[in-house]
Every structure is written in structure tokens, then in C-alpha cells.
Amino acid sequence: MDVSGVVLAGGASRRLGVNKAYLTLKGKTFLELAVEKLRALCTEVLVVGNHLLPQAGLGACFLEEAEDGPPHPARGLRAALRHASCGTCLVLAVDLPLVRGELLQGLLSEREGASLVLPEVNGFLEPLVGLYRRSLLPSLEAVGFGQGLKDWARSLPPGELKVIPEAKLRRWDAELASFLNVNTWADYERLKAYTPHPTYRQPLRKSGPERKNHVNEKRCLP
Question: Which of 19, 158, 152, 132 minimizes the C-alpha distance to 78?
């Protein structure tokens, strides 16, 4: 499929004090899990983040970014769109290790006719798991520290943003476990203890503010 996969792994992880990319779940790092899921669906996989160690055998290209000013999640997206070989990027934050392949496939099935495809959970957009066309780069270049990605997405011209409602998301992930992210050690313990339950139908709630990703240098490893 002519889509670049992008793992956003540049969050500061201030509350955890460790790089979330190297937390583990069932014997694999979050980074390995994210790359594995994207490799199954994408032409290439880019890992965007500072302070990462390129891993031979992972099958990903590593990007670094060092923009001036405060950290902002748009930085990782800008770096990915500048370097991606394909015109569309399937973006996934590294701290979503339970994301289902069916949900990622579902998002891909919705890409026609829109520049940006984002899920909506509990009434909030999820800007760090979605589809971004390279044509969005000029608009993203203008996003500054005072503007969040959710507000930016909502401000796009009519027809640019396609929102995937919760009801449709549940067809691909009934419990919405795909959106269970990690910002604190309590989040991590809850994630490790998570067991799918066939009758559970309420969305799992995430904690903390919008994840931040900062990341120019491209290092590709087989």
C-alpha cells in the first residue's frame, strides 16, 4: 500500500522520567510493537523522535528534529511529512501499544476524499493516530506553541478533515483499548493489567494532556 507509517516517539515523558519507546509489554518494547503494526500495512516506517537508538533489524528509518522554541507535537508530524516517500502517512504515537491492526486498517479504508482522517473518542479528536496527507505540511508549518493539534485540525477548510465517530471505531475495536495510552506509571500498570472482555463497551479513558513529539537527520536501517 502506498502509505508511509510514522511512529511518533518524541514525547518528553516528564512524569515517567524514562523514554516511553522503551517500556515493554509482553516482551516487546512499545517501539517494536508500533513498528511491527505499521510494517504490516505500510510501504515504509519512519520513527520520529530525539534520544532514540536506531535498531538494526527493526526495519525502520529514524528521524531527528531540533527546532528552536518550546516542544510541540506538530514537530514530529512536520518531520515525517517532509521525509516520507509516500503522499499519505499513517501516524501512530508510540505510547499506544494496544492499538488494533483492525483499527489502523479501518482508518486506511477511510482515506479517500480527505486530507486528514482522525478518530474521535469521548467527544475529543485523537490527532496522534490518524492519516495525514503531505499537502497538510504548509498548514502544519504555521502551527505554533499556542495552538494544539486538535484546534488546528478543526480549523481546516471544509472537507479537509474526516472525523471517524466512536460508533464506527467500535466496529474495529469494541472496547477502544487502542486509545489507552501511557503518561504515568499508574497508566503503565493499568495497561499491563488490561485483559479484553467481550461484554465491555465503555471507552477506556486516557490521562494527561496531548502527547508531545519533537523531532532532521534520517537514519535508515534494514
Answer: 132
SS3 state at 111: coil
pTM of this prediction? 0.86
Distance CA 39, CA 28 (A): 15
Those residues with Cβ within 8 angstroms of residue 209's Cβ, 6 or more apart along the chain or in another chain: none
Beta strands in 72-209 (DSSP E): 88-93, 116-121, 124-125, 129-133, 161-164
Residue 138 in grid coordinates: 504548509
Locate 212 and state its grid cell. 508531545
Number of C-alpha atoms within 13 angstroms, CB side, residue 12? 11
Domain spans, the chain: 4-220
Domain 4-220 architecture: Alpha-Beta Complex (3.90)
pLDDT tens digits for 150-193? 999 999 999 999 999 999 999 999 999 999 999 899 999 999 99
Q: How many CB atoms lie within 10 A of CB 118?
A: 24
Per-residue pLDDT tens over the stretch 187-220: 999 999 998 866 554 444 444 444 433 334 455 5
Q: How distant is the alpha carbon of residue 53 from its chain centre?
A: 19
Could you report the per-residue pLDDT of 87-118, keeping only the tens digit for each? 999 999 999 999 999 999 999 999 999 999 99
R_g of the chain computed on alpha carbons: 16
Cell 528509518 identifies what position?
A: 61
Take residue 13 and report the three cell numbers written for it: 515523558
Instruction: Cite the DSSP H helix spans in 40-161.
Output: 74-83, 101-109, 137-141, 149-154
